[in-house]
Automatic annotation (TrEMBL):
Name of this chain's protein: Possible repressor of comG operon
Pfam families: ComZ
Organism: Halalkalibacter hemicellulosilyticusJCM 9152
Length: 62
């Protein structure tokens, strides 16, 4: 699970500049202290989506 979370974190960091730009354009301040809880939320979403995809793949194989 730790390795999977690291991969998810790399994906999140890839899109972080785009997300920051969107927030900046809306006038929403975003700093590194705000980043940690948002990344944890994103990891939870990505893990749940991963598990759902895994379950669907298992059903397809049956």
């Amino acid at each position: 699970m730790q390795e999977q979370n690291m991969k998810f974190m790399q994906i999140a960091m890839k899109y972080l500049p785009e997300g920051k730009q969107m927030l900046d354009e809306k006038g929403i301040e975003f700093n590194m202290e705000d980043l940690q809880p948002m990344l944890e939320l994103l990891l939870n979403v990505m893990n749940e989506a991963y598990e759902l995809g895994k379950q669907e793949a298992a059903q397809t194989d049956e």
